[in-house]
Amino acid sequence: MSFANCRKRRLPVHFSLAVRYRRTLVNKVVNYRGDMEIASCTGTITAKDGAPYPHLHIVIANVAEKFCCGGHLERAVVSLNAEFTLTVCRGSAARVYCPESAIERIHFES
Q: Could you read off the pLDDT of 7-34 as tens digits, one per residue?
């Protein structure tokens, strides 16, 4: 699909963001639709149970609507493009559950 076709078709934009509540350790997922700009996206892609595991924090915004929010990226459908820079580290990184903190921490091996 060419850039011109994307612009004519006005493909839907959809983001699902999650916030994890510390007291209950439950994620609340909120869906956003409409014209959005990715203002920032950072995080890691490690392994979990032998599969790639992205853990991304994203900020999306619509300046015309004076709207901005952020959270853990659960799902995204982007209409035109999204550009990312990745840095590859030597060794491996995997998510390992830590019972003391009740979260999956990154375990690095070189």
A: 445 555 788 888 877 777 788 898 988 8
Distance CA 8, CA 58 (A): 27
Beta-strand (E) ranges in the chain? 14-21, 26-33, 37-48, 51-62, 67-77, 92-98, 103-109
**Cβ atoms 56, 41 nearer than 8 A:** yes
Assign residue 15 a region (left: φ > 0; alpha: ψ between -120 and 50; beta: otherwise).
beta
This prediction has a pTM of 0.74
CA angle 21, 49, 31 (to 5 degrees): 40
